[in-house]
Amino acid sequence: MSRIVVITGASSGFGALTARALADAGNTVYAGMRETTGRNAPQVRAAADYAEEHGADLRPIELDVNSDDSVDSAVKRVIGEHGRIDVVIHNAGHMVTGPAEAFTPEQLAQLYDVNVLSTQRVNRAVLPHLRQAGRGLVVWVSSSSVKGGTPPYLAPYFAAKAAMDSLAVSYAGELARWGVETSIVVPGSFTSGTNHFAHSGHPADGAVEAEYEGRYPGLLQQVSQKLAALAPEGAEASLVSDEIARIVALPDGERPFRVHIDPANDGSEEVSEVADRIRREFLTRIGLDDLLTVHPADA
Q1: Nearest Cα residue to 4 out of 123, 92, 88, 70
Q2: 109, 173, 196, 238: which could form a disulfide with 95 (CB 3.0–4.6 Å)?
Q3: Is 50 a catalytic residue?
Q4: Which is the catalytic residue, given 157, 171, 212, 216?
């Protein structure tokens, strides 16, 4: 079955790979990205070229997750062209690196806006259509850092991804009775095939950063090198996009709540299994175990 898919942050990395994988599978994919006529114009052309070369229905669309107007306009266009949205994928995100103290509160707020508040903007625009249809799928691209190993100098990013993951868990129960499924995809530390580290932000307080560098010389480079060394041969970012495409292709009601793609095995899967089990047990104890599976909206 061909589905209408909207994915955020699709200009590069996991987003671009996922958009192509889903389009190759026969879906109509709206690859959301900002500045489609400016900075990301080359990515728009690359997506259009890919679509033509592969006979895929891949459509770049202006979608700035930091703008209510941009999100609303993109969703309005998709609904106008197809009358429905079947799948929304929360992939947009931004990484920063450096000692936590050296980031200003304003920088953390900006990071939360991209990684967390963006999902709320998109949900408020898309979910009314999914709920009305009584079916649909929301995919959240989380991070193994939420519950796994957490090396230093990545704290603001880790905190933002943890907030997004927590939001996803709560949304899952609130959407179940509407027939809308949730799948949380948890990538590990892929240091190639994405632009996370290459395009990462840095602290605004250079003086504090320098103090930490004096006490922890070369720590960021050490972390980056060690993470890269942990990745086994063949650990490509396409493992994540292929898994998302597999999940989308599954029949309604049969998608996994959470999956890990973590070749380095930082422990996130083991901890998540406990946390998700506790969630299931607690909802059962308070008589809300029906929220663990999706139900038709008219049930």
Answers
A1: 88
A2: 196
A3: no
A4: 157
> Residue 59 is inside which H or E element, if any?
strand 58-62
CA 132 to each of CA 3, 75, 249, 277, 288: distance values in angstroms, whole numbers, following the listed order: 16, 15, 22, 30, 22
pTM of the model: 0.93
CB-based burial label for 196 (10 Å; 0-12, 13-18, 19+): buried
**71: which 2 tokens?**
């999100």
Alpha carbon distance 217, 140 (integer Å): 35
Q: How many CA atoms lie within 13 A of 167 on its CB side?
A: 21
Are 297 and 178 contacting, i.e. CB atoms less than 8 angstroms apart? Answer: yes
Decide if 142 contacts 184 (C-beta within 8 A).
yes
Give CA 118 to chain center in angstroms.
Answer: 11
Query: Measuring CA to CA, which residue among 117, 215, 230, 122 is closest to residue 164?
Result: 117
DSSP 8-state secondary structure symbol assigned to residue 115:
I
Q: How far apart are CA 213 and CA 22, in angstroms?
A: 43
Burial class of residue 281 (count of CB atoms within 10 Å of its CB; 0-12, 13-18, 19+): exposed
Distance, in Å, from the CA atom of 210 to the CA atom of 204, rounded to the nearest integer, reads: 11
Phi/psi of residue 232, each to 5°? Answer: -70, 160
Express each pLDDT in 56-106 by its tens digit. 999 999 999 999 999 999 999 999 999 999 999 999 999 999 999 999 999
